[in-house]
Write a structure and sequence with these properties.
The chain is mostly loops and 369 residues long. The protein has a domain at 253-313. The chain contains no helices and no strands. It is rod-shaped, with a radius of gyration of 43 Å. The termini are far apart.
Length: 369
């Protein structure tokens, strides 16, 4: 007959059954309710939890091991599959995720803390470093970026959402204010401007591309239609026309500079060669000659007005002093005298024609009519 050691108080379990191996816990004490696990097996070390209570269902983990401190979760429930984390440690507060499931690898975050709502990502995967965001919250959809990495500072955008493709910029940094564009999309290459800020209204150009140098205009706004010049470059000083529109073809002058006052011609077109007058100013009314060409030397008349009909002399050359006749009309054939000079009073004959040979009298005075 086997000899059994009875508990210190001499009591047997309520059903009178002892463990299959006949051994009682090493301290001889039975659970507070006197019940042993359903299978009658005790933990390998035969020690029960400090409070003597077994899980509500009476089942111990498959391997029989209890957490290192022998404490079970506050509600006494073990993970759904009965497995404890590989290191045996439960979260500091002893609580398991609401569904009772641990991450696939069984590991909890490094600090042992679960998100405030207790939920882990849907796939159970934690970030590669095992750390959750500083506030413990995961994105609203609980999905982490494809590589599992969160921004370097651990902060998510204010609304908690990541870009639609869940990819973060290459350096992992989000804009300083944390806001992503309204559609959530980042530039195609994932890079943000050097200062990290996106346009003030959050909208990127239709193709998503930022200027090649990554710099935005000083006020942070892109052209109203969102389109950048074909080469992607903005004017050197970053300033756009006051109305925010670029020329219809999107091209800027060769040197990239807009007129000093920022205004483009009413039709938005620049001269065919893209060059502005040397002083950068366009005619006061903004209109260029019908063919769009400025005088070959780029100079406009002193008063900056072009002839009423907008046409320059056939050769594009203005009189040496830049002055046009008082009424602004050039000779009907558009040709100036060979020396380019007009009569001293600037008046042309009533019919507008100069002498056939184009030469004026030595004193420049035409006969009175």
């Amino acid at each position: 007959m086997n000899e059994y050691t009875l508990p210190p108080d001499g009591s047997l379990p309520p059903d009178g059954d002892l463990p299959p191996d006949g051994d009682l816990p090493s301290d001889g004490d039975l659970p507070s309710d006197g019940n042993l696990p359903p299978d009658g097996n005790l933990p390998p070390d035969a020690n029960l939890p400090p409070d003597g209570d077994l899980p509500p269902d009476g089942n111990l983990p498959p391997d029989g091991d209890l957490p290192p401190d022998a404490n079970l979760p506050p509600d006494g429930d073990l993970p759904s599959d009965g497995d404890l984390p590989p290191d045996g440690d439960l979260p500091p507060d002893g609580d398991l995720p609401p569904d009772g499931k641990l991450p696939p690898d069984g590991y909890l975050p490094h600090d042992g803390k679960l998100p405030p709502d207790g939920y882990l990502p849907p796939d159970g995967d934690l970030p590669p470093d095992g750390d959750l965001p500083p506030d413990g919250y995961l994105p609203p959809d609980a999905n982490l970026p494809p590589d599992g990495d969160l921004p370097p500072d651990g902060d998510l955008p204010p609304d908690g959402y990541l870009p639609p493709d869940a990819n973060l910029p290459p350096d992992g940094d989000l804009p300083p204010d944390g806001d992503l564009p309204p559609d959530g999309d980042l530039p195609p290459d994932g890079d943000l401007p050097p200062d990290g800020y996106l346009p003030h209204d959050g909208y990127l150009p239709p193709d998503g591309a930022l200027p090649p140098d990554g710099k935005l205009p000083p006020d942070g706004y892109l052209p109203h239609d969102g389109k950048l010049p074909p080469d992607g470059y903005l004017p050197p000083d970053g300033d756009l026309p006051p109305d925010g529109y670029l020329p219809p073809d999107g091209k800027l002058p060769p040197d990239g500079d807009l007129p000093p006052d920022g205004y483009l011609p009413p039709d938005g077109k620049l001269p065919p060669d893209g060059k502005l007058p040397p002083d950068g100013y366009l005619p006061p009314d903004g209109y260029l000659p019908p063919d769009g060409a400025l005088p070959p030397d780029g100079k406009l008349p002193p008063d900056r007005y072009l002839p009423p009909d907008g046409y320059l002399p056939p050769d594009g050359i203005l009189p040496p002093d830049g002055k046009l006749p008082p009424d602004g009309d050039l000779p009907p054939d558009g040709a100036l005298p060979p020396d380019g000079k007009l009569p001293p009073d600037g008046k042309l004959p009533p019919d507008g024609y100069l002498p056939p040979d184009g030469y004026l009298p030595p004193d420049g005075i035409l006969p009175p009519v």
